Amino acid sequence: MNKPYVICHMTTSIDGKVTGDFLYRPECEKAIDIYYEINRAYKADGYACGRVTMEGSFTGGAKADLSKISGSADENFDDFIADPAATFFAVAFDRKGTLGWKTSSISDEDPGYDNAHIIEVLSKDTSPAYLEYLRKTKISYIFAGNDDIDIDIALKKLYSLFGMKKLLLEGGSIINGAFQRADAIDELSLVVAPVIADKDSKPLFCDGTIKDFKLKGVTNYPNSVIWLNYVKK
Ligand SMILES: NC(=O)c1ccc[n+]([C@@H]2O[C@H](COP(=O)([O-])OP(=O)(O)OC[C@H]3O[C@@H](n4cnc5c(N)ncnc54)[C@H](OP(=O)(O)O)[C@@H]3O)[C@@H](O)[C@H]2O)c1
């Protein structure tokens, strides 16, 4: 194995949606508590999210302030490891390099997220100024493609450069879909809330392809919440 074992861990509606207003209903509260509990129990080396989820959950939509950073015209797009001692990671799939981080690690009240060293996964369609900003902020970054992110390259680098063996993929729908199409998901961990989503909600995998999984376990929780656990067939 030369890449991390990937577990896609998500809260879903009964109809398999993962975004939208249903997540904020009181009926979903218990499911979300269980989601965080299972996240911690996996004891993964880190968690990965798409740019939109990182904005919603961690940066509050802030953009990097590049006004005082010029960036080198002869930037050579080498990967950058800011903290060789880090052992727990927040991996941001941020194709063009836009997320506005204030610090090099996540600060969160939940120990399943707190103190994770940030790794930006970028394409070469990222400005040299943003790269300099990441170096100054002591955030690690890797390149995994020219204008789009190749999931397989990204995973191999997360393993070889950071020693990641177990990674939780935690949404949203678009980045989950990119992993699913790349056949990069080894296990599914779905906390199903007793709610049906509305028409604007997105599915577990945006633009997914057919793939078979086998059931590893089902757990009933209070408040009509179910945990479905599948592994790749
Ligand atoms: N139910 C749950 O458990 C759960 C968990 C997490 C999040 N969520 C929800 O998910 C929502 C966000 O999901 P989302 O689907 O809109 O966005 P997302 O998957 O969080 O982020 C998508 C973005 O990731 C970037 N990206 C990086 N590499 C990519 C690649 N190879 N292919 C495609 N995109 C790539 C792109 O950013 P650029 O556009 O900058 O290129 C893309 O627009 C939030 O509202 C949140 O509430 C739910």
Structural summary, described in words:
The protein has 233 residues and is an alpha/beta fold. It has two domains: 1-45 and 167-233, Dihydrofolate Reductase, subunit A; 46-164, no CATH class. It has helices spanning 29-42, 51-59, 128-137, 151-162, 173-181, and strands at residues 5-12, 46-50, 89-93, 117-122, 140-143, 166-169, 187-192, 213-221, 225-232. A nine-stranded mixed sheet has the order 5-4-3-2-6-1-7-9-8, with helices on both faces. The longest helix has 14 residues, at 29-42. Residues 10-11, 18-19, 23, 49-53, 56, 93, 95-96, 98, 148-149, 151, 170-175, 178, 202, 206 line the site of NADP nicotinamide-adenine-dinucleotide phosphate.
Write a concise keyword list for the protein shown above.
alpha/beta, Dihydrofolate Reductase, subunit A, 2 domains, 23% helix
List the helices and strands and how they pair.
Elements: E1 5-12, H1 29-42, E2 46-50, H2 51-59, E3 89-93, E4 117-122, H3 128-137, E5 140-143, H4 151-162, E6 166-169, H5 173-181, E7 187-192, E8 213-221, E9 225-232
Parallel strand pairs: 1-6, 1-7, 2-3, 2-6, 3-4, 4-5
Antiparallel strand pairs: 7-9, 8-9
This protein binds NADP nicotinamide-adenine-dinucleotide phosphate.
Number of helical stretches of at least 4 residues: 5
Compute the CA-based radius of gyration: 18 Å
What would you call the structural class?
alpha/beta
Strand order of the largest sheet: 5-4-3-2-6-1-7-9-8
Q: Could you state the oligomeric state of the chains shown?
A: single chain
| Pattern of helices and strands | EHEHEEHEHEHEEE
Q: In which range does the helix fraction lie?
A: 10-25%
Averaging pLDDT over every residue, what do you get?
96
Give the beta-strand count: 9
Task: Give the low-confidence spans.
Answer: none
State the domain count.
2
Bound molecules: NADP nicotinamide-adenine-dinucleotide phosphate
